[in-house]
Design a protein that fits this description.
- InterPro entries: Metal_Hydrolase.
- The chain has one domain.
- The chain has 86 residues and is mostly helical.
- The chain contains four helices and no strands.
- Helices cover 55% and strands 0% of the residues.
- The longest helix is centred in the last third of the chain and has 24 residues.
Length: 86
């Protein structure tokens, strides 16, 4: 099993949230393949699950990133991650 397959399989098995993102924004050639890359995730996720990962889960990750930058106290507790049910 490849490293990618192992990571996605274990993430799904243990309920670990994953995000989808690339650094291809500034490459026209690669940007055209981004949809195919997202579709390839259907090997491990349902189409809906892949879209959720690429949209709302990414938004959660960005929100956490913003909270981390705004924290002033090193002793502040880490932000909580909202559950999908909330």
């Amino acid at each position: 099993m490849s490293g990618t397959a192992t990571v996605y399989t274990l993430a799904e098995k243990y309920g670990i949230k994953t995000a989808f993102g690339t650094d291809i924004l500034f490459s026209e050639e690669l940007a055209e393949r981004q949809g195919a890359m997202l579709a390839a995730l259907s090997r491990w996720y349902t189409p809906t699950g892949a879209l959720i990962m690429a949209t709302s889960t990414n938004a959660e990750l960005l929100t956490l990133s913003g909270r981390a930058r705004r924290r002033r106290s090193p002793s502040a507790p880490p932000p909580s991650i909202p559950s999908a049910a909330s």
